[in-house]
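pls design
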């Protein structure tokens, strides 16, 4: 019997709620809440689309920047190789010129030394011949022979 009175009280309570329009207020609140959730979902979709668009945009910018950086690196490597080759060529030319200059100076010094040695040898031979001829030949015949021999030696040595 207790259940019967609980059931009756329940239906009376529901009847009071319906009479005062509580169900409309609850449905209105639920509808408002549903509309708010729908608006939030629409906003979330819009924000997601904006985020995806921005992500795609930044991804394309990143790829473009990476491509540009790779091109810059490639150009820098090519420029470095070109400059290295140019520097090597200049260095080789410089070394070749310096070597040629040094070889020319050495050859010139050798020729000068040989000429100095020849001149010194000729001078020494002339003095020795003069000394020998003076001691062996005396008088006018010796002076004439000496002068002739001296002229011949000088002509052959120079």
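designed seq:
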């Amino acid at each position: 019997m207790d259940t019967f009175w609980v059931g009756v009280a329940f239906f009376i309570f529901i009847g009071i709620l319906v009479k005062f329009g509580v169900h409309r207020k609850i449905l209105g609140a639920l509808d408002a809440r549903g509309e708010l959730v729908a608006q939030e979902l629409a906003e979330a979709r819009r924000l997601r689309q904006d985020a995806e668009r921005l992500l795609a945009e930044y991804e394309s910018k990143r790829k473009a920047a990476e491509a540009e950086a790779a091109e810059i690196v490639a150009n820098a490597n090519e420029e470095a190789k070109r400059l290295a080759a140019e520097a090597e060529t200049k260095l080789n030319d410089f070394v070749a010129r310096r070597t040629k200059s040094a070889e020319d100076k050495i050859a010139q010094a050798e020729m000068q030394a040989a000429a100095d040695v020849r001149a010194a040898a000729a001078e020494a031979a002339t003095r020795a011949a003069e000394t020998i001829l003076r001691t062996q030949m005396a008088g006018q015949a010796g002076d004439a022979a000496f002068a002739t021999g001296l002229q011949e030696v000088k002509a052959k040595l120079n």
